[in-house]
Description:
By secondary structure, this protein is mainly α. The chain has a single domain (about 5-165), classed as Up-down Bundle (Four Helix Bundle (Hemerythrin (Met), subunit A)), CATH 1.20.120.450. The protein is about 65% helix and about 5% strand. A two-stranded antiparallel sheet has the order 1-2. A hairpin with a 6-residue loop joins strand 1 and strand 2. Helix 3 packs antiparallel against helix 8. The longest helix has 28 residues, at about 140-165.
Amino acid sequence: MNASDLLLDAFGRVHGLVHHAVDGVSPNDLVFRAAADANTIAWLVWHLTRIQDDHVAEVAGREQRWTADGWVKRFGLPFADDATGYGHGAADVAAVVAPVELLTGYYDDVHEHTMRYLATLSGDDLDTVVDSSWDPPVTLGVRLISVLSDDLQHAGQAAFLRGLALRR
């Protein structure tokens, strides 16, 4: 298995986790909070998609799907167009209200573009420095693993919340 195949498999697994977390849940379940200031399924899926879109678009040298394909307008959120959810508080989390079809539509669009990009990579590409402002500088491989880690954590959190919401 080469590096590209490994990344394709890993990001493919996120796809299944995201869909499992939201498929068949009600609008109320999407905004269920385990505590007053906790994240919601809707916010977690939106945020993990925004991070993947933002970070992969940057390293791929292309515009984010969020703006290029008009998702920002479809969501109509009260945030700056470049918001990814980083640093959001409880009120920001509550503002992310979207139906399953919108969340998965945006996620699937980002996922498709991510997979196309990953399919072009070689092992040598992963050693390319993409952010020299860190010490040590961040390589493409490290950036992609960071995105993958974030996606897996948030998809797991969304799945956990789904379980709580469906059992209440």
